[in-house]
């Protein structure tokens, strides 16, 4: 009892120690944050709260000064009064020592102690403060020249950071590759515990296409990486051109040839190649992103010469040249053009006489100079004197203000000159009286068009003609001018569509100086007859598919109608064939046929759209494509009552169902089939049946096929299950009896009680059959009464009921049998059997017990013949139990070993046999 108490006490103490280690023995006394990170220059809170129930007398914060456990008092309560030092605020209360501290330097990093004193105990905790410093990001871009090449050096510095920041670079959102970028990093440690990390990204300017780079700084004080983007210089390929402009200085003309470079960075090098040693006036100008290098060249000296500008830039693989050829001036002649009301003469070059009509107004004579001179001087004369009043030369136009009269008649002379180049024009102006034209209008039909002709003949001067048509009517027209004996004729031809849905009125408008106002001649064209549109459809079967052909015919006057096809309400078109035929009466017949598989557009509307000039809007004809309904088919299988055959039924229902139903059966299989037809209005029903034994198609598919006239086939299939009866099981407790012949079935031995009523033998059929017949009979062939799946013995059993019973379950050709050996027992027989079993078991155990006891006792003896006696004693077990008088053989040294093995083997066999 004492030992038990000590064990229990030790267990309790061990559990208490473990709970104390895990912190589970009691609730924490202090609420404190052990590790705090502060940012240099910012405030930090040291938090320590007492949660216990003792009365606190004093509390304070201390700081460890060095590793020798020296401390320095910072803030707290003494005698109930708060105190604080340096940059620390006063605590909240005696049990809440939370204070705010300003972190001025890195030296604030270290361990701080929180202590609470009471009468009973002292509680303390520690806080380790880590000081970090937020770096200041500085970035600078410098241009460098290394080995004659321009470089960009971008410096990014994280100043005053703690711990050391990380600096990376991004160019176009990606980390720069090794070439052409180089990165150098340096670190400087400051006396205040912080450090500065500098990273310099260097690259050749001409190999960098991006105009900015980004410095990425990562540091614990930054919630996200700090991205600083800075613009850098890049090279840009310039656009280079050359141009020449003429200027006048001091009464002389000069070419200003300019070499221009725009949009480039850096500036391009520009040189002018002139192949001359004379000193020329040059000018260089740079305006924003455009460079201009100009030279002043005398026009007379450099006429027809080439000037070359040579441009060089770092982005060029080689120097680029631009060449301009200064023009050579010429003045070859003057053309005379007459414009204004009352004249339709276009080109009068080389004419010696110009005819103007008396009273003609707003007359303008255009003098076109042939040449490339920049300007020219003009000298004008009439009959050797000045121009008459009201006639002046404005630019290159000789204008007659007011109506023409006889004073404007005479010889006009014009001299055009530019330096040494000259051209002369002379023409004689005559003024005549106007003669009105003879007007005639006619029309006829030709090549599918209405041709309207309007003529104004024998007029002086020529009449001016135009056409006036209704809005929206397109036309083709032209005019012919002829002259004979000083009179002029104009013929206008107008082409209009031969067919129109409206009446069209066309007007011919004639203007002439002899008319006070324009003369109009009109002609009205009648509307066209409407076309005759017909549509029809037909069907045909081809290669097992039903095709629909729809024809749309249009008989109309010329031109032929345009026919298109559309399906449904959408604009989806289908392919079609069209042909046109001109009939004897002049009418045009247009036909279009659409040919398609009927199933593609079953149940939809097919529209023929006709467009013709006689129609105000396209006309449509629609035909509905009927839905081709397939016959409804179904198949089923039923079991026949009082018949070993099964019946397969195939039903087909539709509008055009014929007798071409058939069962698809394997080869060499002939079944009994029959077909029945029935009409219900427009619907026809067909039923095809097939009688077959289950064993013939068990586990197979039976297919019924309907053959259409065009060769297609509709099929329906039903599966015939595969049934089985694996066994008949006896649910009562039985003992299996195996026959000595391996092929015979196992017999189940079943014991029933004598003198008992309504005893049952419960059976269960294993398999997937939907139903079965179960019969049991005795060995003499008589049947036993069955109640469902149970064999029933209604009366009291006697020894005459013993014997072999056979039970068979059957479903068509599937059978399974079980054999049952029924034995009838009583309570007296059962008691006798138990007594015999117990006595035999006791007789088997007693000898074993005696042997073990004898060996145990004999083991204490020190007789030298111990081994031999033991062997001889055990040897007696080899004798027959019923023959105790048989003597054991003598054991010698030679055979003692073999004999011992034999004895041991006999014991094992005897023990196993007994068991």
Structure description:
The chain is mostly beta strands and 915 residues long. 17% of the residues are buried. The chain contains 5 helices and 62 strands. The chain is flat, with a radius of gyration of 64 Å. 10% of the residues lie in helices and 51% in strands. The strands form 17 sheets. Strands 2-10-9-5-6-7 form a 6-stranded mixed β-sheet, with no helix packed on it. The protein has a 5-stranded mixed β-sheet with strand order 55-56-62-61-58. Strands 11-12-15-14 form a 4-stranded antiparallel β-sheet, with no helix packed on it. The chain has 9 domains: 26-132, Immunoglobulin-like; 136-231, Immunoglobulins (Immunoglobulin-like, Sandwich), CATH 2.60.40.10; 239-325, Immunoglobulins (Immunoglobulin-like, Sandwich); 331-432, Immunoglobulins (Immunoglobulin-like); 438-525, Immunoglobulins (Immunoglobulin-like, Sandwich); 546-624, Immunoglobulin-like; 632-719, Immunoglobulins (Immunoglobulin-like, Sandwich); 725-825, Sandwich (Immunoglobulin-like), CATH 2.60.40; and more. The model is unreliable at 1-9, 15-25, 340-350 and 862-915 (pLDDT under 50). The longest helix is centred in the C-terminal third of the chain and has 32 residues, at 827-858.
The value of Rg in angstroms is 64 Å
The CATH class of the largest domain is Mainly Beta
Q: Specify the CATH homologous superfamily of the largest domain.
A: Immunoglobulins
Q: What is the name of the CATH topology of the largest domain?
A: Immunoglobulin-like
Q: How would the global form be characterised?
A: flat
Total domain count: 9
- Terminal Cα span: 44 Å
Low-confidence parts lasting 5 or more residues at pLDDT below 50? Answer: 1-9, 15-25, 340-350, 862-915
Characterize the largest beta sheet: strand count, sense, and whether it forms a barrel. Answer: 6 strands, mixed
Name the average pLDDT.
Answer: 81
Helical/strand content category: mainly beta
| Secondary-structure arrangement, i.e. CATH architecture of the largest domain | Sandwich
DSSP summary: helix tally: 5
GO cellular component, one term: membrane
Keywords: Cell adhesion, Disulfide bond, Glycoprotein, Membrane, Repeat, Signal, Transmembrane, Transmembrane helix
InterPro entries: CD80_C2-set (IPR013162), Ig-like_dom (IPR007110), Ig-like_dom_sf (IPR036179), Ig-like_fold (IPR013783), Ig_sub (IPR003599), Nectin/Nectin-like (IPR051427)
Subcellular location: Membrane
């Amino acid at each position: 009892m004492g030992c038990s108490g000590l064990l229990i006490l030790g267990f309790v103490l061990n559990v208490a120690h473990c709970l104390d280690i895990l912190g589970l023995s009691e609730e924490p006394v202090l609420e404190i944050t052990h590790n705090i990170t502060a940012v240099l220059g910012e405030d930090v809170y040291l938090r320590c709260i007492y949660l216990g129930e003792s009365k606190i007398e004093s509390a304070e914060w201390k700081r460890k000064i060095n590793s020798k456990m020296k401390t320095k008092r910072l803030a707290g309560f003494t005698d109930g009064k708060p105190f604080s030092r340096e940059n620390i605020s006063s605590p909240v209360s005696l049990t809440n020592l939370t204070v705010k501290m300003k972190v001025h330097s890195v030296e604030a990093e270290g361990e701080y102690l929180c202590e609470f004193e009471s009468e009973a105990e002292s509680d303390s905790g520690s806080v380790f403060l880590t000081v970090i410093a937020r770096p200041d990001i500085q970035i600078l871009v410098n241009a460098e020249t290394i080995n004659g090449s321009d470089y960009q050096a971008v410096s990014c510095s994280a100043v005053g950071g703690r711990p050391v920041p990380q600096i990376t670079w991004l160019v176009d959102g990606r980390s720069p590759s090794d070439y052409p970028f180089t990165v150098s990093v340096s670190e400087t440690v400051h006396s205040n515990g912080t450090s500065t990390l500098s990273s310099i990204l260097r690259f050749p300017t001409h190999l960098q296409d991006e105009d900015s780079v980004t410095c990425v700084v990562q540091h614990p004080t930054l919630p996200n990486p700090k991205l600083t983007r800075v613009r850098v210089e890049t090279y840009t390929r310039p656009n280079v051109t050359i141009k020449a402009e003429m200027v006048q200085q001091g009464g002389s003309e000069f070419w200003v040839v300019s070499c221009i470079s725009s949009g480039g960075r850096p500036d391009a090098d520009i040189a002018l190649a002139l192949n001359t040693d004379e000193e020329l006036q040059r000018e260089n100008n740079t305006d924003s992103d455009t460079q201009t290098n100009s030279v002043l060249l005398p026009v007379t000296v450099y006429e027809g010469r080439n000037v070359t500008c040579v441009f060089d830039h770092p982005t060029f693989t080689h120097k680029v040249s631009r060449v301009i050829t200064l023009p050579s001036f010429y003045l070859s002649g003057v053309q005379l053009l007459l414009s204004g009301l009352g004249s339709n003469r276009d080109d009068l070059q080389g004419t010696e006489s110009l005819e103007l009509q008396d009273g003609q107004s707003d007359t303008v004579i255009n003098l076109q100079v042939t040449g490339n001179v920049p300007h020219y001087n003009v000298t004008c004369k009439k009959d050797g004197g000045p121009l008459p009043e009201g006639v002046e030369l404005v630019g290159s136009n000789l204008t007659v203000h007011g109506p023409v009269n006889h004073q404007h008649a005479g010889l006009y002379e014009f001299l055009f000159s530019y330096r040494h180049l000259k051209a002369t024009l002379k023409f004689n102006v005559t003024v005549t009286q106007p003669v009105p034209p003879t007007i005639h209008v006619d029309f006829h039909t030709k090549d599918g068009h209405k041709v309207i002709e309007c003529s104004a003949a024998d007029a002086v001067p020529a009449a001016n003609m135009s056409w006036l048509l209704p809005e929206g009517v397109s036309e083709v027209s032209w005019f012919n001018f002829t002259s004979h004996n000083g009179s002029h004729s104009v013929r206008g031809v107008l082409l209009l569509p031969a067919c129109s849905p409206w009446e069209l009125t066309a007007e011919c408008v004639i203007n002439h100086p002899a008319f006070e106002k324009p003369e109009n001649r009109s002609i009205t064209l009648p509307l066209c007859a409407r076309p005759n549109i017909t549509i029809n459809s037909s069907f045909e079967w081809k290669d097992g598919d039903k095709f629909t052909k729809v024809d749309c015919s249009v008989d109309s006057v010329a031109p032929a109608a345009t026919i298109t096809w559309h399906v449904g309400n959408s604009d989806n078109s289908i392919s079609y064939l069209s042909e046109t035929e001109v009939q004897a009466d002049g009418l045009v017949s247009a036909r279009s046929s659409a040919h398609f598989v009927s199933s593609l557009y079953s149940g939809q509307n097919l529209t023929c759209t006709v467009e013709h000039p006689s129609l105000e809007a396209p006309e449509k004809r629609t035909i509905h494509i009927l839905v081709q309904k397939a016959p409804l088919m179904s198949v089923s299988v039923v079991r026949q009552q009082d018949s070993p055959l099964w019946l397969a039924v195939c039903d087909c229902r539709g509008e055009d169902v014929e007798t071409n139903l058939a069962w698809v059966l394997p080869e060499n299989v002939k079944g009994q089939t029959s077909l029945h037809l029935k009409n219900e209005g427009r619907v026809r029903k067909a039923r095809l049946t097939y009688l077959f034994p289950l064993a013939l198609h068990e586990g197979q598919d039976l297919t019924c096929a309907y053959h259409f006239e065009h060769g297609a086939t509709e099929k329906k299939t039903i599966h015939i299950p595969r049934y089985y009866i694996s066994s008949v099981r006896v649910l009562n407790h039985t003992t299996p009896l195996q026959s000595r012949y391996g092929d015979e079935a196992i017999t189940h031995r079943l014991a029933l009680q004598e003198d008992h009523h309504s005893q049952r033998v419960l059976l269960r059929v294993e398999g997937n059959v939907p139903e079965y017949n179960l019969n049991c009979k005795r060995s003499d062939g008589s049947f036993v009464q069955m109640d469902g799946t149970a064999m029933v013995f209604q009366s009291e059993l006697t020894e005459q009921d013993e014997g072999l019973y056979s039970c068979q379950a059957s479903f068509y050709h599937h059978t399974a049998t079980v054999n049952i050996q029924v034995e009838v027992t009583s309570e007296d027989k059962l008691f006798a059997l138990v007594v015999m079993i117990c006595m035999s078991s006791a007789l088997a155990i007693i000898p074993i017990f005696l042997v073990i006891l004898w060996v145990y006792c004999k083991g204490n003896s020190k007789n030298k013949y111990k081994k031999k006696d033991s062997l001889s004693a055990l040897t007696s077990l080899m004798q027959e139990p019923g023959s105790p008088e048989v003597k054991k053989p003598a054991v010698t040294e030679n055979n003692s070993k073999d004999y011992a093995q034999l004895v041991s083997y006999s014991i094992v066999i005897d023990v196993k046999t007994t068991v």
